[in-house]
Q: What sequence folds into this?
């Protein structure tokens, strides 16, 4: 086949161009650290990368939700513990008060303390977390526990469930309502307290003694709540661990999908450079001489 | 037989070698001229003289019979075919890259990220007790605005791509008309020069170069009949017919041209001012290849079966996304209650989250004050948050009933849960939708790049064969130059010899004894 000088030049230019193109791609990969820039570089890889990024974002949100849930549960547990202590003090008072040999003055002092304890219970029932009442169900902007006309429980919250989503299908209820604490199974703790205070004021030690059973029921109830809350905390902590593991996995997969192997890219870059230099050197040698140089 | 016959023979040789050297000079001068085919003086013996008496024929010298142009017409036709395809896929791959940049994936600024952030903000609002927090509500409103802005932006950029392609179409059509005129002009000149049977070599080269350029813009077929009439047809119809030519005209869609209304091709998504290409007699123009085909496919084609997936396809998919996603969110939002005032009353829940006009109310009120939410037609270009949400954070509705405020965020959880629901019947979840759209784009983009690279190889190969046949080789011309120079020198030397012989005859005979 007949070959002209222009063909040599044209060929050399095309080869140099494709060398430079490969060099550019290798350089691109090295400086960005990513295997692809646009969907057309690797459609499958891009699709996978999109999914993993979305999963990572969701994972981050779930971890945040779990953290918030733990804070809420912590506050709940603290309040419940304090309520338990108050009730145990009440129990002590009742034992004292059930003692028939108390003077009126002593009964009065015990009654006063009992009233203080009652007020303390109401206050604890209105505990807040970040400005929101934790035992009020959905009505978090109002104090849920109040005293009605007969000093019994006036619950102004509702039965709403405060939910935290810590997984795609994992939604847990973190709250306890005021009714669960103050009126379990139809009994009314505050009303009972009122009757107790009345009995103490009246010096009726027998009536006081009869209420020991009720107090025990209330204490039992609170202990159950505390253990339930503890169980929820455990569950959330397990979820947090799982989410941390998932995050590691996703990051790993994302890196495998998106990132280049630096060592491999650098070697390829050096290789392409060598090929380019060789092409330049070789090409320049063959396009220069023509017959003109040799004719006298 | 004349005494000067010999001189005549040698003089003819002198002239012939001179001409041949001239042709060599012409080749060397044009070694870098685009589209030039090397020429060669074809030397032929002149008519021999009869020497009577059976002693044969005496040659009478040489003459240049013609100056022929070395060109392979078949390679030209092949080149024009491949060049059209290269033009088509070049245009397509370039525009597809622009579309990819509109989507801007994978990155931290693409559509997927904005959707993510919206869902994350929704989650933040719906988890735990934060449903009443105005700061978190502000976050939801902000990410929603970012989401709608993103979609608006993308729609606008798609329109821009259409407009840019439209402008390129206008330029290409002007180019075609210009080539048509030039080719017909060359046809006239070639016909004149070739009347006496000679070859108009350089003019033909110029004409073929014009067809080369035309072939990359549009698919081209040429015919030359025995009378030398040269015809060029594009898109199946005659562009140049010997010395006359037809023109293409641009008619704006949506307006009347010559009394006939030109339809807009994709009324729901097309940008304004797009051109329809017509022949000057009003006929339709349908290029089957070349850059023009690539541009038109990307500008007009909507991906219906058998057609290419151009900008209208992506715009429609984006509109589908915006519309159905907004509808799914609105469905839940208009059954949920806001935080305060009006929005906590029965009837106050009919507030849209997304709508198509930020100045319009979300609802209509009938005579007795009962509100019903409107059902707006939402596209990617017009999607926006509702007027109520823009003005008042309290109306972001996440509570299931009006007496569970502010702690109830169950509807908010539902809206956040749309992330994993099959909102789109044909695709699945919102993320599946965007993923599949981007994959389609990626695959098409990859295909265009691959086709373009393949075609480049084919075009280069054909070009190489053309150059092998028609290209000037400096080495060859140098060798020829030496060849003709030697012949010229030899012929001149012979003239000297004959001159001396004739001088002997003229000056020395018949002078005996003088």
A:
């Amino acid at each position: 086949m007949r070959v002209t000088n222009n063909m040599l030049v044209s060929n050399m230019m095309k080869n140099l161009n494709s060398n430079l193109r490969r060099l550019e791609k290798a350089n691109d990969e090295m400086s960005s650290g990513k295997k692809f820039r646009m969907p057309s570089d690797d459609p499958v890889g891009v699709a996978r990368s999109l999914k993993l990024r979305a999963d990572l974002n969701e994972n981050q949100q779930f971890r945040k939700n779990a953290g918030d849930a733990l804070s809420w549960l912590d506050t709940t547990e603290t309040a419940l513990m304090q309520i338990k202590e108050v009730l145990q003090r009440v129990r002590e008072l009742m034992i004292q008060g059930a003692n028939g040999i108390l003077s009126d003055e002593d009964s009065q002092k015990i009654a006063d303390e009992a009233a203080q304890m009652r007020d303390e219970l109401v206050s604890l029932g209105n505990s807040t977390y970040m400005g929101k009442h934790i035992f009020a169900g959905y009505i978090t902007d109002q104090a849920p526990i109040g005293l009605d006309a007969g000093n019994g429980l006036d619950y102004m919250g509702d039965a709403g469930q405060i939910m935290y989503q810590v997984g795609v299908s994992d939604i847990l209820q973190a709250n306890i309502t005021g009714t669960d604490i103050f009126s379990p199974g139809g009994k009314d703790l505050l009303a009972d307290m009122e009757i107790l205070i009345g009995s103490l004021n009246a010096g009726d030690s027998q009536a006081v003694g009869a209420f020991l059973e009720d107090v025990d029921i209330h204490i039992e109830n609170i202990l159950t709540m505390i253990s339930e809350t503890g169980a929820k905390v455990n569950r959330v902590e397990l979820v947090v661990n799982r989410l941390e593991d998932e995050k590691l996995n996703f990051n790993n997969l994302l890196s495998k999908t998106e990132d280049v192997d630096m060592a491999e890219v650098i070697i390829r870059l050096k290789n392409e450079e060598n090929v380019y230099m060789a092409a330049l050197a070789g090409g320049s040698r063959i396009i220069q001489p023509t017959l003109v140089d040799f004719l006298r | 037989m004349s005494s000067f016959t010999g001189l005549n023979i040698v003089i003819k040789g002198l002239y012939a070698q001179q001409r041949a050297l001239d042709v060599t000079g012409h080749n060397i001068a044009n070694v870098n001229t685009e589209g030039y085919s090397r020429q060669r003086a074809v030397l032929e013996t002149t008519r021999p003289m009869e020497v009577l008496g059976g002693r044969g024929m005496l040659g009478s010298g040489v003459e240049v019979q013609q100056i022929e142009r070395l060109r392979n017409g078949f390679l030209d036709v092949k080149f024009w075919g491949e060049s059209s395809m290269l033009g088509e896929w070049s245009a397509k791959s370039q525009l597809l890259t622009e579309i990819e940049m509109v989507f801007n994936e994978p990155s931290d600024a693409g559509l997927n990220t904005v959707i993510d952030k919206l869902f994350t903000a929704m989650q933040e609002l719906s988890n735990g007790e934060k449903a009443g927090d105005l700061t978190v509500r502000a976050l939801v409103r902000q990410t929603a605005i970012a989401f709608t802005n993103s979609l608006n932006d993308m729609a606008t950029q798609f329109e821009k791509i259409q407009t840019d392609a439209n402008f390129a179409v206008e330029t290409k059509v002007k180019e075609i008309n210009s080539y048509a005129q030039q080719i017909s002009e060359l046809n006239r000149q070639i016909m004149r020069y070739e009347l006496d049977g000679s070859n108009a070599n350089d003019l033909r080269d110029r004409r073929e170069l014009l067809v080369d350029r035309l072939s990359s813009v549009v698919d081209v077929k040429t015919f030359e009949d025995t009378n030398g009439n040269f015809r060029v047809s594009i898109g199946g119809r005659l562009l140049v017919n010997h010395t006359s030519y037809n023109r293409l005209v641009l008619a704006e869609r949506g307006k009347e041209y010559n009394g006939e209304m030109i339809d807009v091709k994709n009324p729901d998504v097309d940008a304004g001012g797009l051109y329809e290409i017509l022949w000057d007699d009003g006929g339709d123009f349908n290029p089957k290849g070349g850059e023009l085909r690539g541009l038109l496919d990307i500008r007009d084609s909507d991906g219906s079966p058998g057609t290419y997936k151009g900008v209208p396809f992506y715009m429609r998919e984006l509109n589908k996304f915006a519309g159905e996603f907004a509808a799914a969110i609105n469905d839940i939002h208009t059954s949920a209650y806001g935080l305060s005032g009006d929005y906590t009353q029965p009837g106050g829940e009919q507030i849209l989250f997304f709508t198509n006009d930020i100045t319009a109310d979300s609802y209509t009120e009938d005579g007795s004050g009962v509100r019903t939410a409107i059902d707006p037609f939402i596209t990617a270009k017009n999607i926006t948050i509702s007027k109520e949400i823009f003005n008042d954070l309290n109306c972001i509705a996440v509570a299931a009933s009006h007496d569970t405020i502010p702690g109830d965020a169950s509807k908010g959880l539902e809206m956040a849960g749309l992330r994993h629901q099959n909102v789109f019947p044909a695709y699945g979840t919102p993320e599946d939708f965007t993923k599949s759209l981007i994959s389609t784009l990626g695959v098409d983009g990859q295909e265009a790049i691959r086709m373009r690279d393949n075609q480049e190889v084919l075009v280069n190969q054909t070009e190489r064969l053309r150059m092998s046949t028609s290209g000037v080789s400096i080495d060859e011309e140098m060798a020829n130059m030496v060849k003709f120079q030697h012949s010229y020198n030899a012929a001149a030397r012979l003239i000297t010899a004959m001159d001396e012989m004739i001088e002997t005859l003229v000056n020395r005979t018949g002078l005996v004894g003088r």
Q: What stands out?
A: The mean pLDDT of chain B is 90.
